[in-house]
């Protein structure tokens, strides 16, 4: 059984996951990926956050683009445009192979958990990676332009429309991954980490699964969240924009309060040290660290700070 469980979205979460895999033994780490971003495109089952964790933590990530695989080619997309197909969601040739194989295995009756384990093993991922559920959950974004599926909001619309709310379609009947529930009950568990992913798009879909919040509260290990906001700005993506549009103050305190009642510890950036008392007032223990992860050493240092906070 794992000693550390990490709940992760895509780019931001995968950076800390990479650090955790180096700060503890890989066999002690279980990563639960958000699948609220999953969608069917051109008949293919695409799991963006699962793939981002795999790419980032096996050296395949395209660091310049910030998404997809390195050394990518685009013959498929070139031909798709020639044929008049939709080109708003970029599918590189190497990336396409992941989606085709996932879809094929699912069509054979394999579960998303089984397929994810197969993909992770084939790509030599050193730790366990599982989807949050084998049941479909779809993040829907309420906007000034109507309700948009997450990928249409995030990629097609480039996060442009003002956000007025979010729903997690199917979450009310979806079952949390049984391996996650079992790991949360293990008395040897040492830390549960909520990675610095977008709270609304990446973490809340996981937390929306029935019984999961209570399972996290009942777990024997502390729950530690890491801020995605530094100095009132998002490290990456639309988190700050969404917070403002939802009427929230854009700072680390608002993120900590978003998780109030669930987390024990909140890691905020050193430059936001003045916010520590406000977080403490929400009955959450603040921990200061350098949370901006520019390279592998930063990722490992932050991971070590998170794990050290768990055993204080």
Describe the protein in words.
With 312 residues, this protein is of the alpha/beta class. Helices cover 39% and strands 19% of the residues. It has 13 helices and 14 strands. It has helices at residues 11-23, 48-57, 75-82, 93-107, 112-122, 150-156, 178-184, 199-207, 212-218, 239-245, 252-258, 276-280, 296-310; strands at 4-8, 29-33, 39-41, 44-46, 128-131, 138-143, 146-149, 163-169, 191-194, 223-226, 229-230, 233-234, 265-269, 285-289. The strands form four sheets. A seven-stranded parallel beta sheet has the order 5-2-1-9-10-13-14, sandwiched between helices. Strands 7-6-8 form a three-stranded antiparallel beta sheet. Strands 3-4 form a two-stranded antiparallel sheet. Helix 4 (93-107) crosses helix 5. The longest helix is centred in the first third of the chain and has 15 residues, at 93-107. The chain is globular and about 60 Å long. The model has no long low-confidence stretch (mean pLDDT 97).
Low-confidence region ranges: none
- From the spread of the alpha carbons, the general shape counts as globular
Strand line-up across the major sheet: 5-2-1-9-10-13-14
How much strand? 15-25%
State the secondary-structure class: alpha/beta
Mean pLDDT: 97
Question: SSE string, helix = H, strand = E?
Answer: EHEEEHHHHEEEHEHEHHEEEHHEHEH
Backbone CA Rg: 19 Å
The major pleated sheet works out as: 7 strands, parallel
Helical residue percent band: 25-40%
Number of helices: 13
Distance linking N and C termini: 22 Å
Q: How many DSSP E strands?
A: 14
């Amino acid at each position: 059984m794992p000693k550390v469980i990490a709940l992760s979205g895509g780019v931001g979460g995968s950076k800390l996951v990479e650090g955790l895999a180096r700060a503890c033994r890989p066999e002690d780490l279980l990563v639960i990926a958000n699948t609220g971003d999953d969608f069917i495109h051109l008949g293919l089952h695409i799991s963006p956050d699962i793939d981002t964790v795999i790419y980032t933590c096996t050296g395949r990530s395209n660091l310049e683009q910030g998404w997809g695989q390195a050394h990518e080619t685009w013959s498929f997309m070139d031909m798709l445009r020639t044929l008049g197909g939709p080109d708003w969601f970029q599918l590189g040739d190497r990336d396409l192979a992941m989606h085709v194989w996932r879809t094929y295995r699912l069509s054979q009756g394999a579960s998303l958990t089984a397929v994810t384990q197969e993909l992770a093993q084939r790509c030599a991922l050193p730790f366990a990676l599982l989807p949050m559920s084998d049941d479909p959950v779809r993040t829907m974004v309420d906007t000034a332009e109507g309700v948009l599926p997450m990928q249409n909001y995030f990629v097609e619309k480039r996060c442009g429309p003002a956000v007025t709310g979010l729903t997690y379609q199917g979450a009310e009947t979806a079952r949390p991954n049984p391996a996650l529930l079992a790991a949360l009950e293990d008395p040897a568990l040492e830390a549960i980490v909520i990675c610095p992913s977008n709270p609304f798009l990446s973490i809340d879909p996981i937390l929306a699964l029935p019984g999961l919040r209570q399972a996290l509260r009942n777990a024997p290990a502390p729950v530690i969240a890491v801020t995605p906001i530094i100095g009132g700005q998002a490290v990456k993506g639309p988190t700050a924009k969404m917070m403002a549009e939802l009427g929230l103050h854009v700072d680390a305190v608002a993120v900590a309060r978003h998780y109030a009642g669930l987390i024990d510890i909140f890691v905020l950036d050193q430059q936001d040290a003045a916010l520590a008392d406000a977080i403490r007032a929400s009955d959450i223990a603040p921990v200061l660290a350098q949370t901006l992860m520019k390279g592998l050493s930063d990722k490992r240092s932050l991971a070590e700070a998170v794990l050290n906070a768990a055993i204080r």
